[in-house]
Amino acid sequence: MMVPSLKLPDLIQEIRGAKTQAQEREVIQKECAYIRASFRDGDPLQRHRQLAKLLYVHMLGYPAHFGQMECLKLIASPRFTDKRVGYLGAMLLLDERHDAHLLITNSIKNDLSQGSQPVRGLALCTLSTMGSAEMCRNLATEVERLLLQESSSYVLKKAILTAVHMIRKDPELASIFLPPCSKLLHECHHGILLGTITLIMELCERSPVALRHFRKVVPQLVQILRTLVTTGCSTEHSISGVSDPFLQVKILHLLRILGRNHEESSETMNDLLAQVATNTDTSRNAGNAVLFETVLTIMDIHSAAGLRVLAVNILGRFLLNNDKNIRYVALTSLLRLVQSDHSAVQRHRPTVVECLQDTDASLSRRALELSLTLVNSSNVRTMTQELQTFLETCPIDLRADCASGILLAAERFAPTKRWHIDTILHVLTTAGAHVQDDAVANLTQLIGGAQELHAYSVRRLYTALAKDISQQPFVQVAAWCIGEYGDLLLEGSCEETEPPQVEEEEVLALLEKVLQSHMSLPATRGYAITALMKLSTRFQDNNRIRQVVSIYGSCVDVELQQRAVEYSTLFRKYDHMRAAILEKMPLVERGGPQVDEEAKESKEVPQLLEATVPDTAEPQATKLLDLLDLLDGMSRDSQHPVSLDSTPGNALVHPLDLPCATPPPASIPNLKVFEREGVQLNLSFTRPPGAPALLLVTVTTTNSSGGDVTHFICQAAVPKSFQLQLQAPSGDTVPAQGDLPITQIFRILNPNKAPLRLKLRLTYNHFGQEVQEIFEVNNLPVETWQ
């Protein structure tokens, strides 16, 4: 005789009592066999009990797919106990990947129109959980009817959330729910009003028509929020003395969406935002949440200047809060505001600098990013000193960012060359192992161009090198400088009142120490041996230098060995040429050695070189060309801009450097290559006269949606046989409703007339979400490459 199956509480108790995984599996397999047998027998009174046990088994991670059809049978049953378990099973076991979920559409429709309140609630919960786009389209009119006619707040709240799910599944349903939303805004029930605001936000973010429609209700939203702030609707939903903070935050978020890029709506809500910002209690976290949402709204709309200053001051108060999360939010928000309200953020600079010393790594990183953006010509000395102090004690993972930030700030805002050199030397001696590779070249170029500071620089470097030779970039700069200006060490011609006395033997011994140190990299040893060779024309003790150089002629490092052999040969066979070969490097201006030549040629051909790329194009182009793994077999080196050939005998200009500010009209047809949620990318093509191998591609990005596209970046890659140059785009924000598109020009050189293909990567923010698209364009017109 078969033992009867367990009841649900007994099954739970037995599973929890299993001592091993094997015992648990045995209990579950045994019970699942009973459940299958019961389903086959078709006992309607036991079906919901067996399915409830199966759902518990499913929650433990075991297969339960054989119960899907039983869910449909229970949903179709007239008994509430069956429907309750059936709908729960549908939410857990069914989704839009299974075709079986479409079979419950009629049952849900019947329950929505004829069922009791609990049954309608179950149907709405199931629809909002696993309803597919097709189900949403079939049942949208039923949900709309409930929104307009239902009087029960219990059902109405669930219907509103179901409408939100439908909009997310199929944005084309937005027009159906516009009239109910206007009606529901007059409700005073907390849950209904909160759900309605959520539904309106979803509609506005996905439909430009809805956005324009609900901008008309901004005064009504303002009145609702003013009532919450002054009198409050219900003490039941107050938290820590703040009246219904959840509803306040939702309304503020909706106002931010409606006021963005709309001056009239922004003006309507300005007074209210000031009232919320000044009257909200900040002693509790609920008040801080409302204030932060107020700040975000002020930042995004066309708010008055005084209101923006008030928002910055609120964030400044957040920086003084003991809660680390609030301080982090404040730093992140100030980082967004610093470009538009720089002077207001500057007033909180001391507090931001104090956050650098926070023990929380995420806080100190955010504070470092904000501190670096606050550096300008008026505070560069003070801020650099603070950042240098932080550099000495900051965590290892922040040193690279801190060192790079200090070097960039010094390069942009250095008041004097001497201060600039001192700052770089301090960074190199403190965190030399964490600086970027170009720091050595930049400092040597800076010192070489400051002739009046040669003696000062070489003495500073020599003194610091004698104390520490562990920081390799610093040792390389010091070795280069000693090799170039070592004779100034002996002369004592320095700005210091009492320069230290240095002998030749001490300098040579220090460079030998660098060569022999186990901490020296091969590149550092190369700098040191070259410095020794340079000093052979500045010092008297050439025999010692010759001996040291000859020792490294048998070094295992091939590069160092080659240098040593060449230098020994210079001593032995070409000693008469050594002084001329090893003379001091000429002064180099920081713009590069070809600046004067290019300036002369620009005078000779002013018309041809008049259209040049602006200064901001260089870093932007560098960033855009840094495309990793975009195309298999595509060369990044070939995509960098081709340099101008300035020899008189050659052509005046390379084809890629032809002016293209106003390209002539082309007969090549345009091509649409991308479209998503109103964002569209079109390519137009033209060829400049006299350059058949050059193709100018104008990339035009438009936005017909209701939300702005921000932080837009378009990157491109081409095969190795092509040469690609990207000009700076006209901007990085595409306004909504098709205003002011972004344009960018690609210059592609195709000398082999090979078939052209492009790979594009687009990154941007749209409706609050970060979007990244990578796609290949293979259908370019034949005229683009023939």
UniProtKB/TrEMBL annotation:
<keyword id="KW-0333">Golgi apparatus</keyword>
<dbReference type="InterPro" id="IPR011989">
    <property type="entry name" value="ARM-like"/>
</dbReference>
<dbReference type="Pfam" id="PF01602">
    <property type="entry name" value="Adaptin_N"/>
</dbReference>
<keyword id="KW-0472">Membrane</keyword>
<dbReference type="GO" id="GO:0006886">
    <property type="term" value="P:intracellular protein transport"/>
</dbReference>
<keyword id="KW-0653">Protein transport</keyword>
<feature type="domain" description="GAE">
    <location>
        <begin position="666"/>
        <end position="781"/>
    </location>
</feature>
<dbReference type="InterPro" id="IPR016024">
    <property type="entry name" value="ARM-type_fold"/>
</dbReference>
<dbReference type="InterPro" id="IPR013041">
    <property type="entry name" value="Clathrin_app_Ig-like_sf"/>
</dbReference>
<protein>
    <recommendedName>
        <fullName>AP-1 complex subunit gamma</fullName>
    </recommendedName>
</protein>
<dbReference type="InterPro" id="IPR017107">
    <property type="entry name" value="AP1_complex_gsu"/>
</dbReference>
<dbReference type="InterPro" id="IPR050840">
    <property type="entry name" value="Adaptor_Complx_Large_Subunit"/>
</dbReference>
<keyword id="KW-0968">Cytoplasmic vesicle</keyword>
<dbReference type="GO" id="GO:0030121">
    <property type="term" value="C:AP-1 adaptor complex"/>
</dbReference>
<dbReference type="InterPro" id="IPR002553">
    <property type="entry name" value="Clathrin/coatomer_adapt-like_N"/>
</dbReference>
<dbReference type="InterPro" id="IPR008152">
    <property type="entry name" value="Clathrin_a/b/g-adaptin_app_Ig"/>
</dbReference>
<dbReference type="InterPro" id="IPR008153">
    <property type="entry name" value="GAE_dom"/>
</dbReference>
<dbReference type="Pfam" id="PF02883">
    <property type="entry name" value="Alpha_adaptinC2"/>
</dbReference>
<dbReference type="GO" id="GO:0016192">
    <property type="term" value="P:vesicle-mediated transport"/>
</dbReference>
<keyword id="KW-0813">Transport</keyword>
<comment type="similarity">
    <text>Belongs to the adaptor complexes large subunit family.</text>
</comment>
